[in-house]
Structures are given as C-alpha cells and as structure tokens.
C-alpha cells in the first residue's frame, strides 16, 4: 500500500510517496507560499501529482493546532487568520482521502515508527525550524491531548513579559529559538550597530531568509552575533524542555527539524546541557538525540496517519 505524506513548514513543503515499510519511494519539495491557505493547498496538490505512484490516501502535517480536519491556528504561515478545512480542500484537489495532523506530532510519529524513537514508550519530540514544534509519545502511544494541541513545546512560556511570539503572546520558547524569531533579533541588533555575516551568507546562498544552512555556516565561522542569538535560543529551549520533563518524566528527547539536520548530535548535546539545570531529578536513563530520518520524519509520520485511516476504514 502506498500513501503520501505531506510536511508543511514555515519555509518549505515536502511531499513523499511512502511504502508499507515506511520507506520513502520518492519526494518533492517547494517553498511554502505566502499567499494563504489556498495557495498552499494548490502547491501540495501539484507536489502530490509530481511524486506519482498509486497512493490510496494523503496524510498532512501542518504547523499549528488542528482539530477535526481543520487548522484552527497556524502562527508561522501568513494569511491563515481563520480556521481552514484542509481535509476537504486537499481532497477536492487530489481526489484522495486526507488525514490531518500537527507537524510536530507527525514528525515524532515518523521517528517512533521508523527512526530514533523506535522502541521507546515515553518520548518528547522537539522540532526546530521556522518555529518550534513538538510531539509526545506517552505510555507507548502517541499523545495528542483533548483537542489535538498537546506537545506544543514552542509555546511554553519561559520568560514573563518577554519577546513577542508569532502566537501573539510574550516569552514563549519559539520567541527565542525559532529561526524567524532569531532572524528578527539579529536584524534588530544589526540596526543597533552590531555586525554579523548572517545577511552576507543568506545572500550568497540565494536564500530569502536565514535558513538552517545559513545559521550552520555562521556558527561554524565563529560569528559572534550568531553565537549569541543562537545561545539565547538554546537557553530558552533548556528552560522549556526542563519544565516538560518535570511534568512528564520521559526517557528520550528527540531533536528534529532543519537545524538538527544541519548541526547534528552537537546540537542535541548542547540542548541537553542547557536543560539539565532545570530538571528537578535528572534520570540516568534520560537521553537526548537527533532525529534519524532528517527531513523525512514528518513525511513518514504523515503517511502513517493516512495508512492507519485507510486500514481502519477498510
């Protein structure tokens, strides 16, 4: 059985054709449109056609709160001001049944089924990209919460009255550790007289924003401002993850997303070091690691959502 997994991010959309053993048979990627939900759905439909195959359904991961087939709020995509029925919209465009999930949840699902979290019963997933997403596996089952919003580590408040977040509140983890927020901080500091190579690297790489590869290069070159802003983000992650660990006592934290793919295990080690002071009783069994599937985590997890729905309905 072939299914399609769709991973929508604030910067890119990736679509993959996935087989029974969670292997990605083909994929396609494009920049995420900024013209609103309709444009995003159009691009997804084009990418689904591009990957081909004979899929029986589509799983869609979106960076926001989802419930009963609708995206209720999507902070990092412009033009998503009201709830959107993505299931009907994408099904109408492709003729295939669609299942919707949060991008952090489906990313962790992919890692739990076929990646770094396989065999673990209690896991926190932290996805670092344009924003900061998250997911949970508790007691050997994916945990979505009462309204599908569980695992939103990016919107744990770590500083009262702190920096403005895309969700409209202040002091969230994402306000410090999301790439969009870090870019905003860098440009404000440059306006105040600081210097950095980040903008030069962005232009040299032909990027519209400071992507993960831009940050990787700046950090590798010892860019002082990049290290400072990135360090603030890691510190915020440590506080937020520590709070979650004190409540849920998971034994594995999987770090995924573009920054994790570029920076690897060094990033996981650094986040673990930043988290430890905030954990009341650090467990000797607690481990931090990077996602094993890279960019394919969300695609594999979203495809699995579709496969489960098709099997349940057959």
From TrEMBL:
**What family, per the record?**
Belongs to the ROK (NagC/XylR) family.
Under which name does UniProt file this protein? ROK family protein
> SUPFAM superfamilies from the xrefs?
Actin-like ATPase domain (SSF53067)
Point out the signal peptide segment.
none
Give one Pfam family: ROK
Gene3D superfamilies found in the cross-reference section: 3.30.420.40
């Amino acid at each position: 059985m072939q299914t399609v997994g769709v991973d929508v991010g604030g910067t890119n959309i990736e679509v993959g054709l996935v087989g029974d053993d969670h292997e990605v048979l083909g994929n396609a990627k494009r920049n995420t449109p900024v013209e609103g939900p309709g444009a995003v759905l159009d691009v997804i439909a084009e990418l689904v056609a591009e990957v081909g195959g004979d899929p029986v359904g589509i799983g869609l991961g979106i960076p926001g709160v989802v419930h009963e087939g609708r995206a209720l709020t999507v902070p990092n995509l412009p033009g998503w001001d009201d709830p959107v029925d993505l299931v009907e919209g994408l099904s109408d465009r492709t003729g295939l049944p669609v299942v919707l999930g949060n991008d952090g949840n489906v990313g962790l699902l992919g890692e739990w089924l076929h990646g770094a979290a396989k065999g673990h019963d209690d896991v926190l997933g932290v996805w670092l990209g344009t924003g900061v997403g998250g997911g949970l596996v508790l007691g050997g089952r994916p945990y979505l919460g009462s309204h599908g919003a569980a695992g939103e580590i990016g919107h744990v408040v770590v500083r009262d009255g702190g920096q403005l977040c895309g969700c409209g509140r202040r002091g969230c983890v994402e306000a410090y550790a999301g790439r969009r927020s870090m870019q905003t901080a860098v440009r404000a500091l440059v306006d105040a007289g600081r210097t950095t190579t980040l903008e030069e690297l962005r232009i040299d790489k032909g990027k519209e924003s400071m992507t993960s590869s831009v940050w990787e290069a700046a950090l590798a070159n010892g860019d002082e401002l990049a290290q400072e802003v990135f360090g603030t983000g890691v510190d915020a992650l440590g506080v937020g993850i520590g709070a979650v660990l004190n409540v849920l006592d998971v034994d594995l934290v999987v770090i995924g997303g573009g920054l994790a793919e570029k920076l690897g295990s060094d990033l996981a080690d650094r986040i673990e070091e930043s988290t430890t002071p905030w954990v009341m009783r650090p467990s000797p069994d607690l481990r931090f690691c990077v996602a094993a599937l890279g960019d394919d985590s969300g695609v594999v997890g979203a495809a699995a959502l579709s496969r489960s729905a098709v099997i349940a309905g057959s």
